[in-house]
Amino acid sequence: MKAAWYESFGAARKVLELGELATPEPGPGEVLVALQTSAVNPSDVRKRAGSMPGLLDAGYIVPHSDGAGVIEAVGEDVHAGRVGERVWVYQAQHARRFGTAAQYVTIESARAAPLPDSAGFDAGACLGIPAMTAHRCVFADGPVYGKTVLVTGGAGRVGHYAIQWASRAGAMVIATASNDTDAETCRQAGAEIVVNHHEPGWAKQAQELNGGEKAHRVVEVDFGANVDESLHLIRTGGTIATYASMSDPQPRIPFYRMMYLDLMVRLVIVYDMPESAKMEAMHDIDMAMHAGWLKHRVAHRLPLADIATAHELIEQGGVRGSVVLEVA
């Protein structure tokens, strides 16, 4: 099968290799998926760059956790009726070596979720990390009906889904965006108030537009960069659910200011969130996909041969949507 892999850490163009690998066979409880697409996420590029020093101890890595395709074979203890099923997969390269940057992947049957016929394989590749992260950020601390939810970076991969989850669940959504085009994307996704996070005092502006009311929840795209502003907008007893701090990987926090607000800060990563949360997210994604209301943003579609470019696009930042490789 065609595949991409790396045997050492470093820059994408220096370490990523393309070639042929043996097609895997599904083991007990596994399915073999003939992949059509593979998505590149920030965690994928960080791992390739060396964020997990022991990752290569067992050998080369076929990167990427998310993708979509068709089940071609099943292992022992998996119902044969799954053969031919369109699926999206997640966690392909988590605590294991072989991800979705290949024509085939074997994976636990539970990590291959049905993909409706109405959905493209590019959309399926967006669902693992972005949509599930957003679901966890919005719902981890209970229902949001009647609450106000702030989503920073609402036009991004996770933020775009977070707006949709929160607004569909009955929340009043405030979003931040950096330009008029992104602001309109946030509104189309369900945000009622959108402010520019490049403008000083954006939190005060958002509060005024919301009739003086503060947010119950914050879904945070860049904790270190936004914490001071977000604290202006969150109410006592609120929750900040954050999944990244790219601008400042080791942020300093105003401890007492946060303590006096009795805040909860929740750090979210799909790989290690509870299995029950993963199942809930998969269930809600399935319902939303069949209902046809979940919108997806694919910023770039590239062939597998351009995997280095795809990694560089993610590393450069500013990508409005997912970067998807076509691997079939």
What order do the helices and strands come in, and which of them pair?
Elements: E1 2-6, H1 12-15, E2 16-20, E3 30-40, H2 42-49, E4 66-74, E5 86-89, E6 104-108, E7 112-114, H3 121-124, H4 127-139, E8 148-151, H5 157-168, E9 172-177, H6 180-189, E10 193-196, H7 202-209, E11 215-220, H8 223-233, E12 234-242, H9 255-259, E13 264-267, H10 275-291, E14 298-303, H11 307-316, E15 322-326
Parallel strand pairs: 8-9, 8-11, 9-10, 11-12, 12-13, 14-15
Antiparallel strand pairs: 1-2, 3-4, 3-6, 3-15, 4-5, 5-7
Describe the structure.
It is a single chain. Strands 3, 4, 5, 6, 7, 14 and 15 form a seven-stranded mixed sheet that branches. The chain has a six-stranded parallel sheet with strand order 10-9-8-11-12-13, with helices on both faces. The chain has helices at residues 12-15, 42-49, 121-124, 127-139, 157-168, 180-189, 202-209, 223-233, 255-259, 275-291, 307-316; strands spanning 2-6, 16-20, 30-40, 66-74, 86-89, 104-108, 112-114, 148-151, 172-177, 193-196, 215-220, 234-242, 264-267, 298-303, 322-326. It starts with a strand and ends with a strand. The radius of gyration is 20 Å and the shape is globular. With 328 residues, it is an alpha/beta fold. It has eleven helices and 15 strands. It has two domains: 2-126 and 296-326, Medium-chain alcohol dehydrogenases, catalytic domain (Quinone Oxidoreductase, Chain A, domain 1), CATH 3.90.180; 131-271, NAD(P)-binding Rossmann-like Domain (Rossmann fold, 3-Layer(aba) Sandwich), CATH 3.40.50.720. 47% of the residues are buried. Helix 4 (127-139) packs across helix 5 (157-168) and helix 7 packs parallel to helix 8 (223-233).
